[in-house]
Amino acid sequence: SSELTQDPAVSVALGQTVRITCQGDSLRSYYASWYQQKPGQAPVLVIYGKNNRPSGIPDRFSGSSSGNTASLTITGAQAEDEADYYCNSRDSSGNHLGVVFGGGTKLTVL
Amino acid sequence: QLQLQESGPGLVKPSETLSLTCTVSGGSISSSSYYWGWIRQPPGKGLEWIGSIYYSGSTYYNPSLKSRVTISVDTSKNQFSLKLSSVTAADTAVYYCARHEDRTGISNWFDPWGQGTLVTVSS
Lengths: 110, 123
What we know:
The complex is a heterodimer. By secondary structure, chain A is mainly β.
């Protein structure tokens, strides 16, 4: 199956902009979706499709894609954005269709 | 507002079968637009998709778990279930259920998620 690769950890100063990336062959064909997970909580969808935010997600979260890389950008990071972030996409390798998740990125807001 | 809730034993012995149920409220599991999925997260590790089911019973599974996984749906109870056989300590994880949207040519995503339930495999 295909894989999605994320940097294990990223940091950002309060109020600054940070980009979290996700790389994988399936991203050449499909968009990534992004999830925020805080300690002890279930993941929450923050971006899906080309660049769509579910209701209740602040507009400082945005998504983009180029080639085999998808990015989640937080413009003006807040203290409450400190969390783990996961990407996921379709897995279209081989003879099956399925789902693949990235390994996650721990975001620290300084 | 759609809500999902996992239920089942928190402790399973090695070699036995893990069984969990996800109850959906605030909406119908028979919606033609969605699949329903299971995802797990070992302590301190990342997310792993287990499999998903359509209300009609059509399923697709993670190839790495396919030989041990069965997902089923009970539309009359608005529930879907997970069975994972021959468990080992490596199957210890928080298990989540979630609504799974899969759009051809676009991608897929999970929203909302249940709160998760910790299943420990130990004798």
